[in-house]
Amino acid sequence: MGFECKKVLLFSAFFLSGAVIVLIPCIVVIARRSNNCPVQTTTTMTTPPTTIWNASDYQSNSEYYQSLISPRNFDQSDNLRLDRLSSPQFHPTNGKSIIYLRRQYHMPDLRGSTTTLHWLDLETNTTVQLTRPIWGIHDQQFFWVDNNTILFLSNRASTDLRQIFQLTLPANVSQTADFIDPIQITNYPLNIDNLLVNRQASRLAFSCQV
């Protein structure tokens, strides 16, 4: 019985010795690898504040260039600062005035744009900006309904969706000292496109994309 116990103890001692011999290199390898691992650092991302463009920081390109002191060469940024004029339409009765669209960009960083309605007297060359410029707001696709009423599309709605607006011109547009606030006609939950008005201005058609 005593011999059997000694035999068991002897085998146990050999087994433990072998386990220790195998375990020591593993511990050394793990320790070296942990020392070679780079220390992980936490990077904090800082987001720049969002700039809101509105009528309070409105500046035309002519005002911007008048504020420059020293002359410089014309480059691609100056090309972007040029106003885009489009879609002129004559007065439906006398043809002595036109309304057109004017797209202009935020000065001086060009990080926003707006499209507004303008009126031009062809006899006196008097120009009046009809709708208020707000960065991100674009008027488009306008129609003369009668001598002093304009229908047009714009995203001036509180929902930021394109809707139909009506602009009523005063009797003497050339004497207009401030912007004219348009009236919102539609309030659909979708953007309105492709506005059409018949010659009698009694019917209109448009499309909405779902």
TrEMBL record:
Domain of life: Eukaryota
Transmembrane segments: 9-31
Keyword terms, alphabetized: Membrane, Transmembrane, Transmembrane helix
Protein name: Uncharacterized protein
